[in-house]
Design a protein that fits this description.
It is a single chain. Helix 1 runs antiparallel to helix 2 (about 55-85). The protein is elongated. It has helices at about 15-35, 55-85, 95-120, 135-155. By secondary structure, the chain is an all-alpha fold. The chain has one domain.
Length: about 160
Amino acid sequence: MEYRSATRMQTTRSISPGVMLGLGIGGFIDGIALHQIAQWHNMGSAKVPPITMEAMQQNMAWDGWFHVTTLVLTIIGIYLLLSHGRAGRRLPDAGSFTGQLLLGWGAFNLVEGIIDHHVLEIHHVRDLPMHVPLYDWLFLGVGGVGLLLIGWWLGGPDAKIRQA
């Protein structure tokens, strides 16, 4: 690995900012698409079904904390990107960066899906109006493993470093 000198940039590629941004943005996509637009579940809808106003308020609060977490991940990714850019790290091209975002999004879906849907069972992909177990498995397979594989192919450590 070469380090930045007055005339030269590092030759190692910056990967962690894209992955961290993918974690945060993936969480936002989950929250916006599944919690708010489709209204298939809330953060705790398998434990506290939102059938009363009090239960809906509790679920909205949990959804809010979920969004705070995804915002923090996104902000960390932004500052990692800034830090790597200022340190002279070689930033990825658009294709590799897209892969890194997908890698982070897939990692988010896989970890969140295993923990929340299968281990803790606090919600499922489709809780409302009823739980559809197949959706949990499709979420892990397509949204988790599928995005990880595509992201790794496009932006992993072995992806071609293209000249800008």
